Amino acid sequence: MPVILARVDQRLIHGIVVNQWAAETKAGRYMVIDDEVSQDEALKASMRLSKPAGTGMSIINTDKAIHNFRNGNYDSQKVFVLVKEPSTLIQLLDAGIKIPKVNVGIIFDEDGRKNISKFVSVNEQEVKDFKEIEKRGVPCSIQYVPNDQEVDIKKLI
Q1: Of the listed 11, 14, 48, 113, which one is catalytic?
Q2: Structurally, how many domains does the chain consist of?
Q3: Could you tell me the residue range of the domain that residue 121 belongs to?
């Protein structure tokens, strides 16, 4: 199974992901899946600068990610998936992509979201999406850095 962890983090690639989570996951590929970010060449270039040495990075839209997974492009790699919204993960699951676990790092407190932890706020749709992901047998937990204790998202939503 190529996906070793999926993380919902609205900052996508940042210091904590490339330093602390890199050591924790030992991922060989970081895959940012975002339909908007995948079209922004300047942002993609800056994200690529931060990837850990010796790893690969893909910054692609959801359809291309699904195509690449189905095509077996990552079968020999350990892939750490990064998305801004849990709805993207549902699209992957709908396409038959196996996700063993979802880690929630940062969802900003904006646009009417309700704060459920220090770094995570959710709206009604995101609550539904996390419940749907859990219903499909994929555990979801909030954990900002690997040394933090995992908190089952079900307890907070």
Answers
A1: 14
A2: 1
A3: 3-155
